[in-house]
């Protein structure tokens, strides 16, 4: 059974966010086996997909697992799956995925860029929980927003780009937080560098202390920064040690996420379900 490791939201190996991708011939094996594979791969997400019969509302069924649990929506592993389908000749142009959060689409351009069409997350102003303030080491917080249920993060605006980059959170404290995770963000110090805002994402409750580039988080970052910067087309830079670029286009209830991907490992999974 063929398995790949794909770096998403980057065009260079060992950058961006790595995801496992496993294409199946038929229906999904038992959940316990899928979880074991994801735990063995031990990346922030491993994607599993199988083709759907003609006449279905989508072309492929898609699921995502962290090392600890299944998630409702994942951007970078969807981009990685679309990249594998395109480079393997299994999809040309637009592909539709049936997932827990609904039907998602991915369109691969001739230059290899993949554009994902995801639902835009709603943002509700919220107080900063004391536990989160403690976990962030008292970093100055400008605003806090709760995101929609299908994302389920707390979006926190910090004072500046340097604060985001240098943040050293207490992951054990964040692990007890009820949300999926915490996204911290700030406006770019110098937009001439090719990005408009920065962010980092922490998801220790799902076995991911820090996710290098979280596509789904940009469905909340897009409306957040579009309102502040007065533009619907923006570029975000996410990550700590590993970084990647996400181009976002806010289109009302939908958010388009565009990025590249590169396959860094192509191997064989020897353990069958």
What topology does this entry show?
Layout: E1 2-8, E2 17-23, H1 31-41, E3 45-51, E4 60-65, E5 70-71, H2 76-87, E6 94-99, E7 102-108, E8 114-119, E9 123-125, H3 130-135, E10 141-147, E11 153-158, H4 161-166, H5 171-175, E12 181-187, E13 197-203, E14 208-211, H6 218-229, E15 233-239, E16 243-251, E17 254-259, E18 261-268
Parallel strand pairs: 2-3, 4-6, 11-12, 13-15
Antiparallel strand pairs: 1-2, 1-18, 3-4, 4-5, 6-7, 7-8, 8-17, 9-10, 10-11, 12-13, 13-14, 15-16, 16-17
Family: Belongs to the PhzF family.
InterPro entries: Phenazine_PhzF-like (IPR003719)
Keywords: Isomerase
Quick summary of this structure?
Pfam families: PhzC-PhzF (PF02567). The protein has 273 residues and is α+β, with helices and mostly antiparallel strands.
Description:
Keywords: Isomerase. One of its GO terms (molecular function) is isomerase activity. This is Oxidoreductase. It comes from Streptomyces subrutilus. Belongs to the PhzF family. The structure is a single chain. 19% of the residues lie in helices and 41% in strands. The protein has 273 residues and is an alpha+beta fold. The protein folds into two domains: 127 residues, Diaminopimelate Epimerase, Chain A, domain 1 (Roll); 130 residues, Diaminopimelate Epimerase, Chain A, domain 1 (Roll), CATH 3.10.310. The chain has an 18-stranded mixed sheet that branches. Strand 7 and strand 8 form a beta hairpin. It is globular. It starts with a strand and ends in a 5-residue tail after the last strand. The mean pLDDT is 95.
